[in-house]
From TrEMBL:
Protein name as catalogued: tRNA (guanine-N(7)-)-methyltransferase
Catalytic activity as recorded in UniProt: guanosine(46) in tRNA + S-adenosyl-L-methionine = N(7)-methylguanosine(46) in tRNA + S-adenosyl-L-homocysteine
Pathways involved: tRNA modification; N(7)-methylguanine-tRNA biosynthesis
Family of the protein in this entry: Belongs to the class I-like SAM-binding methyltransferase superfamily. TrmB family.
Organism from which the protein derives: Saccharibacillus kuerlensis
Amino-acid positions noted as binding S-adenosyl-L-methionine in the UniProt annotation, renumbered to this chain: 44, 69, 103, 125
Record's compositionally biased regions (Acidic residues): 248-264
Residues that hold substrate according to the record: 129, 161, 199-202
Domain of life: Bacteria
Listed EC numbers: 2.1.1.33
Keyword annotations of the record: Methyltransferase, S-adenosyl-L-methionine, Transferase, tRNA processing
Amino acid sequence: MRLRGRKGIRENLEAQPELVVLEPEQYKGRWAELFGNDHPIYVELGMGKGRFISGTSVRNPQANFIGIDMYDELVRRASEKARAAWAEQGHDTPPSLMLARANVEKLEDIFAPGELERIYLNFSDPWPKKKHARRRLTHPRFLDMYKRVLNANGQIHFKTDSETLFEFSLNSFADSGLQMTNISLNLHRDGINEEHVMTEYEHKFMGKGMNIHRCEVVIGEKALERYEEVRMEPYRISSDERAAMAAEEAENETPVVEEEKSEV
Ligand SMILES: C[S@@+](CC[C@H](N)C(=O)[O-])C[C@H]1O[C@@H](n2cnc3c(N)ncnc32)[C@H](O)[C@@H]1O
């Protein structure tokens, strides 16, 4: 029987407690227990129809995933997508993915300090009017919450098509004293890697030829230590490149001697 209307959607969600959590506050500090292991927990805030969290969970069995959205209907659609993605792997119920109906405002009622390892913010609502800036999920008031629920390896991975949200977010990260890395103004400039899982919005905007902006924010102290070890690698100059540079300089320094005109 096809369930219709608000009541039908709620009944649908209530009928799948092995995948959908309607009162996530009850698991605060106990998510590892719910998953039955202590794998790191990665959360997408505002998952929409769940394409990204479903695909990413299938590709990364070493982590646990939680997709969060505030609308029942989106959680229902995400549940269909999650089941379909995991069915291809032979699982009736996704073993490492839960979907929660919740508002990000309540994040600290849902997760204990240090309970998460990664937060994905994918195409968060841009809230373009200045008077709504505090609703943007990269506003410093949200970043303060993220810092508290993330663990020592904690990071935020952020993608958006919105230039104004990206600009606001980079400033917000910097003003909150956070370390950014892997900043890209055009994530798909060199084509799409097969392993890359697109979100619904990413797919739509890519189709319109729009640039996708992305950056990572390094938060936990261990993540920062690892980042320190590699941060200058993209700028390292190899010995071959150094030799080529020296040869180029030497060539530029060789004086050009005009040939003497031979007198006839
Ligand atoms: C623009 S959509 C992006 C959906 C998806 N991440 C994607 O990239 O396709 C933003 C989503 O965030 C959800 N959202 C916005 N604010 C939220 C909040 N405070 N708490 C939970 N979900 C929120 C919306 O319901 C919507 O599904």
